[in-house]
Known about the structure:
By secondary structure, this protein is of the alpha+beta class. The chain has two domains: 30-135, Rieske [2Fe-2S] iron-sulphur domain (Rieske Iron-sulfur Protein), CATH 2.102.10.10; 149-432, Naphthalene 1,2-dioxygenase Alpha Subunit, Chain A, domain 1 (Alpha-Beta Complex). The chain has helices at 4-11, 18-23, 169-176, 200-206, 298-309, 335-339, 350-359, 377-396, 424-427, 429-432, and strands spanning 27-32, 44-48, 51-57, 63-67, 81-83, 86-88, 95-96, 102-104, 125-128, 131-135, 158-165, 211-216, 220-228, 233-242, 246-248, 258-267, 270-278, 414-419. The strands form four sheets. Strands 11, 12, 13, 14, 15, 16, 17 and 18 form an eight-stranded antiparallel sheet that branches. It has a four-stranded antiparallel sheet with strand order 5-6-7-8, with no helix packed on it. A three-stranded antiparallel sheet has the order 1-10-9, with no helix packed on it. The longest helix is centred in the C-terminal third of the chain and has 20 residues, at 377-396. It is globular, with a radius of gyration of 23 Å. The two termini are 41 Å apart.
Amino acid sequence: MLSKADNEYLCRIGPGTPMGNVMRQYWIPAVRSDELPEPDCAPVRTMLLVEKLIAFRTTSGEVGLIQNHCPHRGASLFFGRNEEEGLRCVYHGWKFDVTGQCIDMPNEPAESNFKTKVKATAYPCKERNGIIWTYMGPRATPPPLPDFEANMLGPDTYDISMIHRPCNWMQGWAGEVDTVHQAFLHSGHVKPEHTTPDTLDYWIAKTPAPLFSVIETDFGTSYGAWRPAGEDTYYWRIAHMLFPFYAQIPTGAIGYEVRFAAYVPMDDEHTMHWEIGARVNNAEERPAWAGRGGRPTGPESRARREKELYHPNTTDWFGRFNMKQCWDNDYLIDRQAQREMKIWTGIEGIRQQDMAVTESMGAIYDRSSEHLGTTDALIIRTRRKLIQTAKALQEHGITPPGVDQPEVYRQRSGGVVLPRGVDWWDGTAELRARWSAEAVR
């Protein structure tokens, strides 16, 4: 259970807050590349860490991320003309490049040098395999991008999904690696006799409550949750919480699934949930007990999925990537399906089930009223480490984990069957560290 003060400390991420300062040390996923599909296309409103920003792609293809309000008189640059390597405010014609520098002031005398003295807040951007990343921190030279394998493979291998979540970032992030809820929220209607023996579905249904081991790592925290498999083996589910807001969940078999999620705070009460997965060459080697496993479906399938499940994007600050199933319609819960145990929750869709429980906590849940158990060990340890990290940065200037070590993000997560006497961390070192030969920096 957190105190109210610690809960506030963790959840508030605006400029100048301890947790906001931590997040600004890292590169942040800002916009999906296909949201800015061509040079000089329409700008996009986006909100990151309680800042309203405008993303735009220049004539040469560079991406800029600039403050919403024009430094002149405060008009929104969303309405700007995106032309000739800059965004031009329509109010008086002031034009800004991707660095925020004013490069034209047509309403000033030709001999004036005033434009050289005006610079808007703008953040550097890097584009890598479908994600436009931004750095909002204090360094003149940003740190390296994190080495997430799923974002370092070729353009035909990855899939990127996004969901706007109207709740604090901590709620989604903690839910992402809460492995116990898999046996209830997603699979409570599945009984052992409904599954194939000696598979992960069977082991989870047979032993809904696993035992836990939690460790701190160079990138954050990790857990191993184990259940009996064979007479002399355990089935382990291994996952990672990677600072500042990334997660790798135990999907399928470890070493064969390449994916990560990000819970990017828009403001204190809204989150953009990213999920990035990539195909890997060794997917056909997946062990039989893991089943077919989740696999990225590619951009065409993603577009069909988004058309079916999402409202069309709008241009307001919270208008991107909103699912049709939402709080306003009770996530289209089917009480008959719930009663008949066709679906434990009565809610269709894994992500929609996650949304229902984490968003129903409220915009910012008061964790001082929680009653945490042994299976919440990872959440407890991670919260403590986040608070320690924020205080170390604030009081001693200590750089948070992973900022300058992009290689520590070279992780894989998932399930594995191990002999009962084998240490789960040491016994999976090779599988967790597998790295696709195609991954390039």
